[in-house]
Amino acid sequence: MDTGLVLLGHGSRAAVDEANQVLLRLAEMVRGKAGFARLETAFMNPKARRQSLAEAVEKMIREGAERIIVAPVFLSNGLHMQQDIPAEITRLKQKYQVEIRLAAHLGADPRIAEVIADRIRSELIVPGSGLRVTGFYDSELGTRDSQLDDVGEVNFLTAPQAIEARSRMIIEQLIGDLTFPEREILGRIIHATGDPALASCTEIHPEAVRAAGQVFTGGKKIIADVQMVKAGINSRQAEQLGLEIYCAVDDPEVVEKAREKELTRAMVALKALAGLIPGNLVVVGNAPTALRELIRLTESGEVRPALVVGTPVGFVGAAQAKKALTRLDVPYITVHGARGGSAVAVSIVNALMELHLRQDQDQDRGRGE
Q1: CA 334 to CA 340: how far, in whole Å?
Q2: Is the pTM of this model over 0.70?
Protein backbone atom coordinates (compact mmCIF):
# COMPACT_ATOMS: atom_id res chain seq x y z
CA MET A 1 0.00 0.00 0.00
CA ASP A 2 1.33 3.41 -1.01
CA THR A 3 1.78 5.27 2.28
CA GLY A 4 2.50 8.95 2.86
CA LEU A 5 3.63 10.76 5.98
CA VAL A 6 2.57 14.22 7.12
CA LEU A 7 4.70 15.83 9.82
CA LEU A 8 2.32 18.22 11.58
CA GLY A 9 3.45 21.16 13.69
CA HIS A 10 1.69 24.04 15.38
CA GLY A 11 3.35 26.77 13.33
CA SER A 12 4.33 30.37 14.04
CA ARG A 13 3.04 33.43 12.25
CA ALA A 14 4.76 34.22 8.98
CA ALA A 15 6.63 37.18 10.48
CA VAL A 16 8.83 34.72 12.36
CA ASP A 17 8.98 32.04 9.69
CA GLU A 18 12.44 30.92 10.82
CA ALA A 19 10.60 29.08 13.60
CA ASN A 20 8.68 27.08 10.97
CA GLN A 21 11.92 26.19 9.22
CA VAL A 22 12.75 23.90 12.13
CA LEU A 23 9.91 21.53 11.16
CA LEU A 24 11.13 21.47 7.56
CA ARG A 25 14.64 20.46 8.65
CA LEU A 26 13.21 17.93 11.05
CA ALA A 27 11.18 16.44 8.20
CA GLU A 28 14.35 15.76 6.23
CA MET A 29 15.86 13.98 9.23
CA VAL A 30 12.70 11.89 9.64
CA ARG A 31 12.66 11.07 5.93
CA GLY A 32 16.06 9.44 6.24
CA LYS A 33 15.16 7.50 9.39
CA ALA A 34 11.58 6.42 8.56
CA GLY A 35 12.16 5.67 4.88
CA PHE A 36 9.09 7.49 3.52
CA ALA A 37 9.30 8.54 -0.11
CA ARG A 38 6.16 10.65 0.33
CA LEU A 39 6.59 13.15 3.14
CA GLU A 40 4.94 16.52 3.62
CA THR A 41 4.95 19.10 6.38
CA ALA A 42 1.82 20.88 7.56
CA PHE A 43 0.93 23.49 10.17
CA MET A 44 -2.14 24.03 12.33
CA ASN A 45 -1.74 27.79 12.61
CA PRO A 46 -3.21 29.53 9.51
CA LYS A 47 -1.12 32.62 10.30
CA ALA A 48 1.98 30.61 9.45
CA ARG A 49 0.94 30.96 5.79
CA ARG A 50 2.26 27.51 5.10
CA GLN A 51 0.67 24.27 3.98
CA SER A 52 -2.27 23.14 6.14
CA LEU A 53 -3.07 19.54 7.03
CA ALA A 54 -5.89 19.50 4.49
CA GLU A 55 -3.60 20.79 1.75
CA ALA A 56 -0.90 18.24 2.59
CA VAL A 57 -3.41 15.36 2.53
CA GLU A 58 -4.93 16.53 -0.75
CA LYS A 59 -1.48 16.75 -2.34
CA MET A 60 -0.58 13.23 -1.26
CA ILE A 61 -3.85 11.78 -2.56
CA ARG A 62 -3.29 13.44 -5.92
CA GLU A 63 0.13 11.80 -6.03
CA GLY A 64 -1.33 8.37 -5.37
CA ALA A 65 -1.14 7.84 -1.61
CA GLU A 66 -3.58 5.19 -0.40
CA ARG A 67 -2.80 5.56 3.27
CA ILE A 68 -1.60 8.63 5.17
CA ILE A 69 0.00 8.78 8.61
CA VAL A 70 -0.17 12.11 10.41
CA ALA A 71 2.71 12.44 12.88
CA PRO A 72 2.11 15.38 15.26
CA VAL A 73 5.16 17.20 16.54
CA PHE A 74 3.40 18.12 19.76
CA LEU A 75 4.86 17.52 23.20
CA SER A 76 1.58 17.08 25.11
CA ASN A 77 -1.92 15.77 24.55
CA GLY A 78 -3.60 19.18 24.48
CA LEU A 79 -6.68 20.51 22.66
CA HIS A 80 -5.09 20.18 19.23
CA MET A 81 -4.41 16.49 19.87
CA GLN A 82 -7.73 15.76 21.58
CA GLN A 83 -10.11 17.78 19.41
CA ASP A 84 -8.82 19.85 16.49
CA ILE A 85 -6.63 17.30 14.69
CA PRO A 86 -9.01 14.28 15.12
CA ALA A 87 -11.92 16.40 13.86
CA GLU A 88 -9.95 17.50 10.78
CA ILE A 89 -8.83 13.93 10.07
CA THR A 90 -12.43 12.68 10.31
CA ARG A 91 -13.52 15.35 7.83
CA LEU A 92 -10.72 14.50 5.40
CA LYS A 93 -11.43 10.76 5.59
CA GLN A 94 -15.07 11.34 4.74
CA LYS A 95 -14.17 13.65 1.88
CA TYR A 96 -11.50 11.51 0.23
CA GLN A 97 -12.43 8.01 1.42
CA VAL A 98 -8.82 7.22 2.24
CA GLU A 99 -7.18 5.72 5.33
CA ILE A 100 -5.66 8.41 7.57
CA ARG A 101 -4.03 7.49 10.85
CA LEU A 102 -2.98 9.82 13.66
CA ALA A 103 0.26 8.87 15.43
CA ALA A 104 0.76 9.58 19.12
CA HIS A 105 2.08 12.90 20.42
CA LEU A 106 5.69 13.00 21.61
CA GLY A 107 4.90 12.80 25.31
CA ALA A 108 7.34 12.23 28.17
CA ASP A 109 9.90 10.26 26.21
CA PRO A 110 13.35 9.51 27.73
CA ARG A 111 14.95 10.54 24.44
CA ILE A 112 13.45 14.01 24.80
CA ALA A 113 14.69 14.11 28.38
CA GLU A 114 18.21 13.43 27.08
CA VAL A 115 17.95 16.34 24.64
CA ILE A 116 16.79 18.60 27.48
CA ALA A 117 19.64 17.36 29.65
CA ASP A 118 22.07 18.14 26.84
CA ARG A 119 20.79 21.71 26.66
CA ILE A 120 21.10 22.03 30.44
CA ARG A 121 24.65 20.67 30.39
CA SER A 122 25.52 23.31 27.84
CA GLU A 123 24.68 26.02 30.39
CA LEU A 124 26.23 24.41 33.44
CA ILE A 125 28.57 26.31 35.71
CA VAL A 126 31.59 24.45 37.04
CA PRO A 127 31.27 24.67 40.84
CA GLY A 128 33.55 27.33 42.23
CA SER A 129 35.14 28.19 38.92
CA GLY A 130 32.82 30.66 37.24
CA LEU A 131 32.95 28.59 34.05
CA ARG A 132 29.79 28.83 31.98
CA VAL A 133 29.74 26.68 28.87
CA THR A 134 27.57 28.52 26.37
CA GLY A 135 26.66 27.79 22.79
CA PHE A 136 27.60 24.15 23.35
CA TYR A 137 25.04 22.70 20.96
CA ASP A 138 23.03 24.35 18.22
CA SER A 139 20.14 22.16 17.12
CA GLU A 140 19.66 24.21 13.98
CA LEU A 141 23.19 23.72 12.71
CA GLY A 142 23.98 20.46 14.43
CA THR A 143 27.24 21.88 15.72
CA ARG A 144 28.71 22.26 19.19
CA ASP A 145 30.65 25.47 18.57
CA SER A 146 28.25 27.56 16.50
CA GLN A 147 28.40 30.41 19.01
CA LEU A 148 32.00 31.10 18.06
CA ASP A 149 32.29 29.55 14.62
CA ASP A 150 32.71 32.26 12.01
CA VAL A 151 35.07 30.19 9.88
CA GLY A 152 33.00 28.71 7.07
CA GLU A 153 34.16 26.37 4.35
CA VAL A 154 35.18 29.33 2.22
CA ASN A 155 37.76 30.34 4.87
CA PHE A 156 38.66 26.83 5.97
CA LEU A 157 41.96 26.90 7.83
CA THR A 158 44.80 24.66 6.71
CA ALA A 159 47.92 26.18 8.30
CA PRO A 160 48.78 24.25 11.51
CA GLN A 161 49.70 27.39 13.46
CA ALA A 162 46.47 29.13 12.42
CA ILE A 163 44.37 26.12 13.39
CA GLU A 164 46.08 25.92 16.78
CA ALA A 165 45.67 29.65 17.40
CA ARG A 166 42.01 29.54 16.38
CA SER A 167 41.35 26.55 18.64
CA ARG A 168 43.01 28.27 21.58
CA MET A 169 41.02 31.44 21.00
CA ILE A 170 37.72 29.53 20.96
CA ILE A 171 38.64 27.63 24.11
CA GLU A 172 39.70 30.83 25.88
CA GLN A 173 36.29 32.32 25.20
CA LEU A 174 34.53 29.14 26.33
CA ILE A 175 36.28 28.73 29.66
CA GLY A 176 36.15 32.40 30.63
CA ASP A 177 37.67 33.52 33.92
CA LEU A 178 38.92 30.25 35.34
CA THR A 179 41.90 30.47 37.65
CA PHE A 180 45.28 28.87 37.09
CA PRO A 181 45.97 25.90 36.94
CA GLU A 182 42.39 24.67 36.49
CA ARG A 183 42.20 26.80 33.36
CA GLU A 184 45.14 24.99 31.76
CA ILE A 185 43.86 21.50 32.51
CA LEU A 186 40.29 22.12 31.39
CA GLY A 187 41.53 23.92 28.30
CA ARG A 188 43.56 20.84 27.34
CA ILE A 189 40.57 18.54 27.87
CA ILE A 190 38.34 20.68 25.66
CA HIS A 191 41.04 20.99 23.01
CA ALA A 192 41.54 17.20 22.92
CA THR A 193 37.86 16.29 22.78
CA GLY A 194 36.07 19.23 21.17
CA ASP A 195 33.52 18.93 23.98
CA PRO A 196 33.20 22.03 26.21
CA ALA A 197 30.59 20.30 28.37
CA LEU A 198 33.29 18.02 29.82
CA ALA A 199 34.45 21.01 31.83
CA SER A 200 31.22 20.91 33.82
CA CYS A 201 31.83 17.35 35.04
CA THR A 202 35.60 17.47 35.59
CA GLU A 203 36.77 17.43 39.21
CA ILE A 204 40.30 18.46 40.14
CA HIS A 205 41.48 17.70 43.67
CA PRO A 206 43.04 20.78 45.33
CA GLU A 207 46.34 18.92 45.76
CA ALA A 208 46.44 17.35 42.29
CA VAL A 209 48.92 19.73 40.66
CA ARG A 210 51.25 19.71 43.66
CA ALA A 211 51.11 15.90 43.72
CA ALA A 212 51.99 15.76 40.02
CA GLY A 213 54.99 17.95 40.74
CA GLN A 214 56.15 15.49 43.37
CA VAL A 215 56.01 12.66 40.83
CA PHE A 216 57.87 14.69 38.20
CA THR A 217 60.67 15.54 40.65
CA GLY A 218 60.64 12.35 42.79
CA GLY A 219 59.11 9.03 41.76
CA LYS A 220 59.49 9.70 38.04
CA LYS A 221 57.05 6.96 37.02
CA ILE A 222 53.70 6.92 35.22
CA ILE A 223 51.60 3.75 35.19
CA ALA A 224 49.05 3.60 32.35
CA ASP A 225 46.11 1.22 32.08
CA VAL A 226 46.26 0.78 28.28
CA GLN A 227 48.72 1.28 25.44
CA MET A 228 46.66 4.13 23.98
CA VAL A 229 47.27 6.17 27.11
CA LYS A 230 50.97 5.38 27.10
CA ALA A 231 51.28 6.28 23.41
CA GLY A 232 49.42 9.56 23.83
CA ILE A 233 51.59 10.98 26.62
CA ASN A 234 53.96 13.57 25.18
CA SER A 235 57.23 11.65 24.88
CA ARG A 236 59.35 14.77 24.45
CA GLN A 237 58.08 16.33 27.67
CA ALA A 238 58.30 13.01 29.49
CA GLU A 239 61.94 12.72 28.40
CA GLN A 240 62.65 16.26 29.57
CA LEU A 241 61.31 15.32 32.99
CA GLY A 242 63.11 11.98 33.03
CA LEU A 243 59.84 10.05 33.38
CA GLU A 244 59.38 6.35 32.76
CA ILE A 245 55.98 5.19 31.46
CA TYR A 246 54.77 1.68 32.15
CA CYS A 247 51.90 -0.37 30.72
CA ALA A 248 51.70 -4.14 31.15
CA VAL A 249 48.43 -4.81 29.34
CA ASP A 250 50.18 -6.66 26.50
CA ASP A 251 52.64 -8.63 28.63
CA PRO A 252 52.26 -12.36 27.83
CA GLU A 253 51.91 -13.28 31.51
CA VAL A 254 49.19 -10.69 31.98
CA VAL A 255 47.34 -11.86 28.88
CA GLU A 256 47.47 -15.49 30.04
CA LYS A 257 46.44 -14.73 33.62
CA ALA A 258 43.54 -12.56 32.47
CA ARG A 259 42.33 -15.36 30.22
CA GLU A 260 42.61 -17.99 32.94
CA LYS A 261 40.87 -15.92 35.62
CA GLU A 262 38.36 -14.32 33.21
CA LEU A 263 39.41 -10.81 34.21
CA THR A 264 40.15 -7.78 32.05
CA ARG A 265 43.78 -7.44 31.01
CA ALA A 266 43.88 -3.86 32.28
CA MET A 267 42.87 -5.05 35.74
CA VAL A 268 45.50 -7.77 35.83
CA ALA A 269 48.13 -5.42 34.37
CA LEU A 270 47.56 -2.85 37.09
CA LYS A 271 47.98 -5.50 39.77
CA ALA A 272 51.18 -6.67 38.06
CA LEU A 273 52.62 -3.14 38.27
CA ALA A 274 51.52 -2.58 41.87
CA GLY A 275 55.14 -2.37 43.05
CA LEU A 276 55.67 0.76 40.93
CA ILE A 277 52.55 2.59 42.10
CA PRO A 278 53.55 4.04 45.52
CA GLY A 279 54.51 7.71 45.18
CA ASN A 280 53.84 7.77 41.46
CA LEU A 281 51.18 8.76 38.94
CA VAL A 282 48.56 6.22 37.86
CA VAL A 283 46.58 7.05 34.69
CA VAL A 284 43.40 5.10 33.95
CA GLY A 285 41.82 6.38 30.77
CA ASN A 286 40.01 3.36 29.44
CA ALA A 287 39.17 0.53 31.82
CA PRO A 288 36.83 0.98 34.80
CA THR A 289 38.01 -2.40 36.08
CA ALA A 290 41.58 -1.09 36.29
CA LEU A 291 40.42 1.87 38.35
CA ARG A 292 38.44 -0.47 40.61
CA GLU A 293 41.55 -2.59 41.13
CA LEU A 294 43.60 0.50 41.98
CA ILE A 295 40.96 1.58 44.50
CA ARG A 296 41.01 -1.91 46.07
CA LEU A 297 44.80 -1.90 46.34
CA THR A 298 44.79 1.58 47.87
CA GLU A 299 42.03 0.86 50.37
CA SER A 300 43.81 -2.32 51.48
CA GLY A 301 46.99 -0.34 52.11
CA GLU A 302 49.01 -2.25 49.53
CA VAL A 303 49.75 0.89 47.50
CA ARG A 304 49.42 4.63 47.78
CA PRO A 305 49.77 6.55 44.51
CA ALA A 306 50.82 10.18 44.62
CA LEU A 307 48.12 11.10 42.10
CA VAL A 308 45.42 9.31 40.11
CA VAL A 309 44.12 10.55 36.77
CA GLY A 310 40.97 8.45 36.46
CA THR A 311 38.79 9.02 33.41
CA PRO A 312 37.61 5.57 32.24
CA VAL A 313 34.72 5.67 29.80
CA GLY A 314 31.65 3.48 29.53
CA PHE A 315 28.18 2.67 30.77
CA VAL A 316 29.17 -0.29 32.95
CA GLY A 317 31.02 0.62 36.12
CA ALA A 318 32.81 3.76 34.91
CA ALA A 319 30.72 6.33 36.79
CA GLN A 320 30.73 4.23 39.96
CA ALA A 321 34.49 3.68 39.86
CA LYS A 322 35.16 7.38 39.40
CA LYS A 323 32.84 8.26 42.26
CA ALA A 324 34.68 5.77 44.47
CA LEU A 325 37.99 7.37 43.45
CA THR A 326 36.89 10.69 44.93
CA ARG A 327 36.41 9.01 48.31
CA LEU A 328 40.04 7.92 48.51
CA ASP A 329 42.50 9.91 50.59
CA VAL A 330 44.59 10.46 47.45
CA PRO A 331 44.75 13.45 45.05
CA TYR A 332 42.92 12.82 41.80
CA ILE A 333 41.57 14.32 38.60
CA THR A 334 38.44 12.73 37.13
CA VAL A 335 35.51 13.26 34.80
CA HIS A 336 32.23 12.20 36.38
CA GLY A 337 29.62 10.10 34.62
CA ALA A 338 29.97 7.75 31.67
CA ARG A 339 32.13 10.10 29.60
CA GLY A 340 35.91 10.21 29.61
CA GLY A 341 38.40 8.08 27.71
CA SER A 342 42.08 7.79 26.89
CA ALA A 343 42.18 11.12 25.04
CA VAL A 344 40.89 12.89 28.14
CA ALA A 345 43.38 11.16 30.43
CA VAL A 346 46.28 11.93 28.09
CA SER A 347 45.27 15.59 27.78
CA ILE A 348 45.32 15.90 31.58
CA VAL A 349 48.76 14.30 31.94
CA ASN A 350 50.20 16.43 29.14
CA ALA A 351 48.75 19.55 30.74
CA LEU A 352 50.34 18.63 34.09
CA MET A 353 53.73 18.06 32.48
CA GLU A 354 53.53 21.33 30.58
CA LEU A 355 52.59 23.20 33.76
CA HIS A 356 55.55 21.72 35.61
CA LEU A 357 58.02 22.47 32.80
CA ARG A 358 56.73 26.01 32.53
CA GLN A 359 57.16 26.46 36.27
CA ASP A 360 60.76 25.24 36.03
CA GLN A 361 61.45 27.67 33.18
CA ASP A 362 59.96 30.56 35.16
CA GLN A 363 62.13 29.68 38.13
CA ASP A 364 65.22 29.50 35.93
CA ARG A 365 64.46 32.93 34.51
CA GLY A 366 63.93 34.25 38.03
CA ARG A 367 67.33 32.98 39.13
CA GLY A 368 68.96 34.54 36.10
CA GLU A 369 67.60 38.03 36.75
Answers
A1: 8
A2: no
